[in-house]
């Protein structure tokens, strides 16, 4: 041990690190031994029934819904008509075949290189009742089509709800397996963590066509329950060689988000509240450094979070902040440097990301003391920190990211390079059951299962906040 004051501090710090590492080693992480084929996923041909075109002249296709307001009493219904604009109206009601209500939508289209899109309709249906099944009808005459959705329970701290989490889906046979597994899971809404169709990976003539096929592909789920969208790098489609220099052009035309309801200035970042969850969507590929619009918006949105009403605070982004996979390693470091202290201070429960084509779950750790000058650089256990979950394993054509750093770092709890999806079943304001479900292995028991305690209600934090506000502790 050095005798100088500086040296003494260093020794104590090292001792602390050893103690912390000893504590972590009690919960050493798991690197699954399951090995999935490293070959790229096979793309489903365009004429496959997975992309089937509905019958009838100008029949609506690519039907999908998303939450349409801040609190879950509205949906945005979107679809495409291929031949002519037709009607943008939605007829709806609470019993099948009886559509006593009507909402008026809008229609748009766009070009991308030599592709001209169909007519893209978006219709806001608002003023809905909570916890109610609605039937809706779109299109005209014999070509009209009917679907249904269920509204969430009203905002309430104990409202149970099940979210699915899917990322980097694409349109391969593995994508289809993921989607079919998810549909069987009982999930009520999808939190989608970016990289949707991978249309940008196809021949330049097929970019638009592969957006259309993907829209038809996800309809089996997305027409019946909201998918909460966040954008990934495959949505950017910045292709100056094709004369396309407007980022997110296809994505923004096709996928609406209720960004205005959360006072956002941009559809790429926004928030919704649903049942007992407050969900914040961030854009990894839009500016977020200090003073930018996204930074300012997030600062204000975190102030609007009310854990007494929505105990579960969930953040979605595309690029993971903590990942021990060698692919895309540390690409999330810049966002960590900007936002991590806010996530910890706000007691975020979960941060879901995609981008890395594998699955990984972290322990609760933070690295807010990182200091490029002093050399402090290790993440440490932090019970105030979120759990970071990477679910970029939807099944796209690029294949799996199978190379993890070895040995497994202390912050990594479980990791496996397989395709799959997750479900988060919120039970009440204190507990949620989380599963990561690997595709195709025929097991009934999901591969990674954890019971999570809420970061607000299952800790002493809310008691302190309540007392500071002059209240009495009631639980
Ligand atoms: Fe990505």
TrEMBL record:
Domain named Fibronectin type-III: residues: 59-154
Catalytic activity, reaction form: a phosphate monoester + H2O = an alcohol + phosphate
Enzyme class name: hydrolase
InterPro entries (alphabetical): Calcineurin-like_PHP, FN3_dom, Metallo-depent_PP-like, MPP_PAP, PAPs-like, PAPs_C, PAPs_N, Purple_acid_Pase-like_N
The protein's Enzyme Commission number: 3.1.3.2
One Pfam family per UniProt: Pur_ac_phosph_N
Record keywords, A-Z: Glycoprotein, Hydrolase, Iron, Metal-binding, Signal, Zinc
Gene Ontology MF, one: metal ion binding
Signal sequence interval, chain numbering: 1-28
Known cofactor(s): Zn(2+); Fe cation
CDD domains for this protein: MPP_PAPs
Protein's UniProt keywords contain tRNA processing: no
Family in the record: Belongs to the metallophosphoesterase superfamily. Purple acid phosphatase family.
Protein name: Purple acid phosphatase
Organism: Cephalotus follicularis
């Amino acid at each position: 041990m050095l005798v100088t004051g500086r040296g003494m501090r260093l020794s104590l710090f090292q001792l602390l690190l050893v103690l912390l590492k000893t504590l972590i080693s009690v919960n050493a992480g798991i690197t699954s031994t399951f090995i999935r084929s490293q070959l790229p996923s096979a793309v489903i041909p365009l004429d496959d029934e997975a992309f089937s075109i509905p019958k009838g002249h100008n029949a609506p296709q690519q039907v999908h819904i998303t939450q349409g307001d801040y609190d879950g009493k509205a949906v945005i219904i979107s679809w495409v008509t291929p031949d002519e604009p037709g009607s943008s109206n939605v007829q709806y009601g609470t019993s099948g075949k009886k559509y006593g209500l009507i909402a008026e939508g809008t229609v748009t289209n766009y070009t991308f290189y030599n592709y001209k899109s169909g007519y893209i309709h978006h219709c806001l249906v608002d003023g809905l009742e909570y916890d109610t099944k609605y039937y809706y009808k779109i299109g005209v005459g014999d070509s009209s089509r009917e679907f249904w959705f269920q509204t969430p329970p009203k905002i309430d701290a104990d409202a149970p709800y099940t979210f699915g989490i899917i990322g980097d889906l694409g349109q391969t046979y593995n994508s289809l397996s993921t989607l079919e597994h998810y549909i069987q899971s009982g999930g009520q809404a999808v939190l989608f963590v970016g990289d949707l169709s991978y249309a940008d990976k196809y021949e330049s003539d097929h970019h638009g066509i592969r957006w259309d096929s993907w829209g038809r592909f996800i309809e089996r789920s997305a027409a019946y329950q909201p998918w909460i969208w966040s954008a990934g790098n495959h949505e950017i489609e910045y292709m100056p060689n094709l004369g396309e220099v407007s980022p997110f052009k296809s994505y923004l035309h096709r996928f609406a988000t209720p960004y205005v309801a959360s006072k956002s200035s941009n559809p790429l970042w926004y928030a919704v509240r649903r049942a007992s969850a407050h969900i914040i969507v961030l854009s990894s590929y839009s500016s977020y450094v200090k003073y930018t619009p996204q930074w300012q918006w997030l600062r204000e949105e975190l102030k609007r979070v009310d854990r007494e009403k929505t105990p579960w605070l969930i953040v979605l982004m595309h690029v993971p902040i903590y990942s021990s996979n060698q692919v895309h390693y540390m690409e999330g470091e810049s966002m960590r440097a900007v936002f991590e202290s806010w996530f910890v201070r706000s007691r975020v429960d979960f941060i879901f990301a995609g981008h890395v084509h594998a699955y990984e779950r972290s322990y609760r750790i933070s690295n807010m003391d990182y200091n490029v000058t002093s050399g402090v650089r290790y993440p440490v256990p932090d019970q105030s920190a979120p759990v970071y979950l990477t679910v970029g394993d939807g099944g796209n054509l690029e294949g799996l990211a199978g190379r993890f750093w070895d040995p497994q770092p202390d912050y990594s709890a479980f990791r496996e390079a397989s395709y799959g999806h997750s479900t988060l079943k919120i039970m009440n304001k204190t507990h949620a059951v989380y599963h990561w479900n690997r595709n195709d292995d025929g097991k009934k028991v999901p591969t990674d299962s954890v019971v999570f305690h809420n970061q607000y209600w299952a800790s002493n934090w809310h008691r302190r906040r309540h007392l500071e506000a002059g209240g009495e502790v009631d639980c």
